[in-house]
Amino acid sequence: MVIVGGGIGGTALACGLAGSGLEVVLLEKVAQYHDIVRGEWLSPWGMQEARRLGVEDALAAGGAWEIREWVQWDETTDPDEAGSVDLTGLLPEIGGPQTFPHHQVCEQMALQAADAGIEVILGASRVGIGRGDRRQVHYTGADGARHSIDAGFVVGATGRSNIVGRQLGLEMDLTVHHRGAGLLVDGLDEWPSDTQAMGTEGDVMFMVFPQGYGTARLYLNYDPAHTRRYCGPDAVTEFLESFRLRCLADRGDYIADHASPVGELTVWPSMSGVPLGDFVWDGVALIGDEAGSCDTVLGTGLSSALRDARHVRDVLLGPDWSVDAFSEYVRERGARMDRLHHGAHIYHELFVEFGEYAVARRRRARRLMSENDAYQVTGLLNMIAPELVPDFGFSEFFTERLLLETR
């Protein structure tokens, strides 16, 4: 069988199939893993999936760092009254979420797969998928030559590139929610190393995710109409200066004054993709963002990809690889993504909308959450598996009540 895509979902699946007796080839287009900025936060329920796939040690070797506290700042409250949440208690056997350099974890998982007998081919570009009873997979190797593999089964794990899905005719309904910018920095030795921060003020939503030893990934989300923001020769300076926010007080000044870039500043449109058709066919299955993606503001993309990999792994370890054998994967993924899209909608409406109306709505929502813990239910999507979140959090009544317009 062939796995197309050596990101975290593809490499985790390869590791999960190691020792099964299957002949597995993993194709990855880059010859050497490099920083891609996004995909560096794994929820506790994602860590559960990593453990089930046997890649927990590879995460640690790649630099995984536990986050134990979450502080939510906002322009509607005094900086010293920002609420903090202990992230370690919901799944005590797992602890808090993990942050890490995405490329280093991919590299460690690929090494684990190779050490276990999986054939890992880096620098495999221009991958083509054939049709028929046996899939012909074609690719251009690092040597520049064209190669072919007769595959009994193909798994597409190429993320939002959707290389396998597009060749099989799968279209996505894409929606752009906002734009994002990200930068890896060091020099933040005085920032609490186990504390992630998020907040909204003016026309930006910010995120700070420590990765240990003074290193952190900084993110800013903003209106999608601002297509040239954080571009040009002064983009890094503009980006860091955006953290001088009233809601952060001297913490924002500390970031702007002390953060030193150690990677490239990257900007992108943050979008979700809903598949307009099947993502499992005879002899082919898609996992991760290639099978449909959620707004990145929720931060559950990697957790969902690992859940997909575990589902597909379990089927491939059995005797039946028919489309029907994947019916539970298709059903569970559909229900899961419905909930994740719902949660992402609420997060976006509360934290990535700007202006007087958005401020008033956020102030009212914060009051509701302080008066009744039930209004914080969608926040559980970042921590525990979607199917374990109480059903009322996805009801129309709950959503309308939480996001009700304030006049």
Automatic annotation (TrEMBL):
The organism of origin for this protein: Dietzia cercidiphylli
UniProt feature coiled coil, ranges: none
Segments forming domain FAD-binding: 2-312
Keyword hit for Oxidoreductase: yes
Protein name, UniProt field: FAD-binding domain-containing protein
Signal peptide start-end: none
Keywords carried by this UniProt record: NAD, Oxidoreductase
Superkingdom in the source lineage: Bacteria
